[in-house]
């Protein structure tokens, strides 16, 4: 079972929601998960309906059965200052560096340094142990950058290792890469049953595989129920049938039935078209040969209750959170 | 008022975003589409380009990483950094399209502004290679550069820009400034200092800062890295002013009256929240906002039938079917209920209470099936399905309405146009044209009530 779950997905597919639900789902029976945000959008705080998260780990939710979810919004600038403090006891010199623009340079412009800091912090949480030698967090879930950038984001350590050929950042990058490429990590992609997200998912999986990063599952989000199949819709169009439907409608207590049949059938035709498109997209996802899970569309949108509902769904699905059952818990 | 409308009264209060007036205005030379990821920015930009061209303008669309089939629909499926004519546009205008190649754009700038040997040194520098391959902000900066270049050529009378899928929509505005200020900022001057400072007065403080910093960064990143950066900076030195000047010029161009920003959003909470940020930010930057494109809005021709009533009716039908299928079982439940008023099915009442509100006079399917008698059970099943589908649609509608209302309450001044959701994706010019029609018609084609 992987201990670092990286959740990515095309913009608009709900990757932050899925990451949060996954963290909740994994926090069962006394387990503790850490949900990490790396893009500074405070999406987690909004989802859990709390105020903006500071740069510190804090408990944001309790899961059924007594599990706990902690959250952390990693800020690259703060992470770098911490890092400098830890290794160089910089103290106020850190502030001077900031004034000179060096921190800004290192976290926004310098290739990959920012990403090393972000992934490094997450990997540190994965490996952290308490005094008894037990892991502090059973699972770490990362709400990662979108699919188009995920491979570069995770693989950037290689790039940094190439650029910074010696020194602590180099070593840090190597250490982080060892975690990311191990069975301890699984990268999941969130998608919708629509053409562009599925295409992006396929591209993303190919890139991850090419970079030798461990792929986890595909999580299909916002799946609508299939109310009518195509055949039912096709048979519905005939004139005689329309009358029957009108009669059936008024029989069920709907007034003005005659005027409703047309629009209702139109909606059904759109639905049937969607069902057909979704079938194609499911087939495309199957070709990826990864475990796939489906989460329902919540008609009310995702609020806190909806988040718990999705977590329950994930638990029911028994989401396979690891590429392999690594089990190196010691 | 709400009767046959798919949306409530707020639409009447919100100014309508007149897309055609915008596209026809010869004073408008740049339209920038921005918004959160996954809301349809690229498709919107492409549809605007097609419509503008077909209304007679010489338009060019600058897209950032479009989906392959969308790119194919405009004939730009090959990654290309120069505008290509799009075939199949009707009318007097012209459409060109191009896809931003960030690295190529950066390389071209270097090649254009440095002598060949210096350009070579820059292009081969490992730091440059990483920077140009797309780290934080480079794509946004290069999109701005390209926009500036296109505008400077004055070959088109309308440029439609799709913005990069940024971490945050605001990155697009921030990145050029950030890169610009980095490139001629204090830090760079410090890195350059050893090479050019030569013991001027007043440099003492900088020297101290410098040695502390390069010392620290050197330790942290390794000496080679810092030397790479210094070499890069030295080679780029002559170009820095140019970067800053162009970034500033493009920034001012975006504030000029010839530019119109369109914020694109889907009627979802996150997308509209991002849209609200953008509206506020554009105002703060004094950049001209034309309005909001609300994409993928659902409508219904049967909006007067509420979700609750549709579900209740569907339940009626289902219960009726159970009765029809197993006539005996209905009797077992001892119902033949006293007098169920047809519409008064309590929402929470499952069949234990009123299993048969349905056998009302003419609702009994069998008696009056003139066409072909026993088609009754499938019809009621089908009808129940249609009603459930409708209920789902109405739930989507009301959720979209709520999120939209929240936005409108915050920003009543923002003109809005709504684009009805299409069941499938867009792959060709005809599809883009259809989106353009929807963009221009403003409200939803709600269908007859």
TrEMBL record, chain A:
Native species: Streptomyces tirandamycinicus
Pfam (any one): ArsA_ATPase
Protein name: ATPase
PANTHER family per UniProt: ARSENICAL PUMP-DRIVING ATPASE ARSENITE-TRANSLOCATING ATPASE (PTHR10803), ATPASE RV3679-RELATED (PTHR10803:SF31)
Ranges for domain ArsA/GET3 Anion-transporting ATPase-like: 5-180
Gene Ontology molecular functions: ATP binding; ATP hydrolysis activity
Domain of life of the organism encoding this protein: Bacteria
TrEMBL record, chain B:
An example Gene Ontology molecular-function term: ATP binding
Biased composition, class Acidic residues, residue ranges: 360-369
Domain ArsA/GET3 Anion-transporting ATPase-like positions: 29-297
Segments of this protein annotated with the region Disordered: 323-381
Highest rank taxon of the organism: Bacteria
Record CDD domains: ArsA
Xref: PANTHER family: ANION TRANSPORTER ATPASE-RELATED (PTHR10803:SF26), ARSENICAL PUMP-DRIVING ATPASE ARSENITE-TRANSLOCATING ATPASE (PTHR10803)
Protein name per UniProt: Anion-transporting ATPase
């Amino acid at each position: 079972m992987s201990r670092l779950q990286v959740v990515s997905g095309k913009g608009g597919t709900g990757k932050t929601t899925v990451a949060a639900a996954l963290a909740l789902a994994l926090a069962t029976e006394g387990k503790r998960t850490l949900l990490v945000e790396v893009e500074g959008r405070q999406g987690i705080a909004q989802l859990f309906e709390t105020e903006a998260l500071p740069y510190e780990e804090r408990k944001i939710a309790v899961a059924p059965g007594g599990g706990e979810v902690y959250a952390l919004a990693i800020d690259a600038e703060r992470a770098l200052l911490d890092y400098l403090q830890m290794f160089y006891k910089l103290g106020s010199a850190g502030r001077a560096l900031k004034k000179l623009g060096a921190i800004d340079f290192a976290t926004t412009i310098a290739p990959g340094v920012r990403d090393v800091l972000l992934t490094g912090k997450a990997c540190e949480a994965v490996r952290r142990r308490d005094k008894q030698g037990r892991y502090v967090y059973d699972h770490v879930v990362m709400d990662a950058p979108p699919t188009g950038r995920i491979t570069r984001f995770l693989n950037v350590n290689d790039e940094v290792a190439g650029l910074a050929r010696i020194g602590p950042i180099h070593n840090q990058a190597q250490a982080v890469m060892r975690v990311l490429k191990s069975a301890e990590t699984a990268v999941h992609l969130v998608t919708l049953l629509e053409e562009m997200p599925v295409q992006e998912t396929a591209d993303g999986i190919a890139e991850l595989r090419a970079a030798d990063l461990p792929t986890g599952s595909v999580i299909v989000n916002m799946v609508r129920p299939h109310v009518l199949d195509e055949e039912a819709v096709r048979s519905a169009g005939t004139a005689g049938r329309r009358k029957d439907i009108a009669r059936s409608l008024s029989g069920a207590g709907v007034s003005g039935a005659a005027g409703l049949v047309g629009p209702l059938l139109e909606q059904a035709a759109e639905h049937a078209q969607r069902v057909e498109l979704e079938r194609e997209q499911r087939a495309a996802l199957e070709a990826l040969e990864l475990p796939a899970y489906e989460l329902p569309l919540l008609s009310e949108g995702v609020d806190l209750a909806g988040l718990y509902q999705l977590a329950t769904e994930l638990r029911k699905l028994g989401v396979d959170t690891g590429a392999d059952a690594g089990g190196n818990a010691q | 008022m709400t009767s046959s409308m798919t949306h409530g009264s707020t639409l009447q209060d919100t100014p309508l975003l007149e897309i055609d007036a915008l596209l026809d205005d010869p004073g408008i030379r740049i339209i920038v589409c921005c918004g959160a990821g996954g809301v349809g920015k690229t498709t919107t930009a492409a549809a605007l380009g097609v419509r503008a061209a077909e209304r007679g303008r010489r338009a060019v669309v600058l897209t950032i990483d479009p989906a392959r089939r969308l790119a194919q629909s405009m004939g730009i499926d090959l990654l290309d950094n120069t505008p290509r004519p799009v075939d199949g546009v009707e009318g007097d205008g012209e459409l060109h399209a191009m896809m931003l190649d960030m690295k190529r754009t950066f390389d071209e700038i270097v090649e254009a502004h440095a002598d060949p040997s210096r350009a070579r040194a820059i292009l081969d520098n490992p730091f440059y290679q990483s920077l140009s391959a797309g780290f934080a902000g480079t794509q946004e900066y290069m999109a701005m550069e390209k926009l500036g270049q296109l505008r400077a050529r004055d070959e088109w009378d309308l440029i439609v820009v799709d913005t990069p899928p940024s971490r945050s929509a605001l990155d697009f505005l921030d990145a050029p400034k950030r890169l610009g200020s980095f490139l001629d900022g204090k830090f760079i001057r410090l890195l350059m200092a050893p090479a050019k400072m030569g013991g001027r007065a007043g440099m003492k403080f900088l020297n101290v800062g410098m040695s502390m910093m390069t010392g620290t960064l050197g330790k942290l990143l390794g000496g080679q890295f810092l030397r790479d950066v210094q070499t890069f900076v030295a080679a780029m030195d002559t170009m820095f002013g140019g970067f800053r000047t162009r970034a500033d010029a493009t920034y001012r161009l975006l504030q000029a009256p010839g530019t119109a920003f369109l914020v694109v959003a889907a009627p979802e909470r996150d997308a509209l929240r991002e849209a609200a940020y953008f509206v506020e930010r554009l105002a703060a930057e004094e950049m001209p906002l034309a309005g909001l494109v609300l994409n993928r809005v659902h409508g219904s021709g049967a909006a007067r039938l509420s979700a609750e009533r549709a579900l209740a009716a569907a339940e009626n039908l289902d219960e009726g079917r159970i009765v029809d299928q197993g006539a005996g079982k209905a009797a077992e439940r001892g119902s033949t209920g006293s007098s169920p008023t047809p519409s008064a099915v309590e929402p929470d009442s499952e069949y234990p209470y009123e299993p048969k509100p349905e056998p009302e006079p003419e609702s009994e399917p069998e008696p009056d099936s003139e066409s072909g008698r026993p088609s009754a059970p499938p019809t009621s099943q089908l009808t129940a399905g249609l009603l459930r589908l409708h209920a789902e649609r109405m739930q989507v509608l009301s959720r979209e309405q709520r999120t939209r209302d929240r936005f409108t309450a915050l920003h009543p001044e923002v003109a809005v146009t709504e684009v009805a959701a299409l069941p499938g994706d867009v792959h060709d010019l005809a599809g883009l044209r259809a989106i353009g029609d929807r963009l221009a018609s403003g409200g939803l084609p709600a269908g007859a009530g």
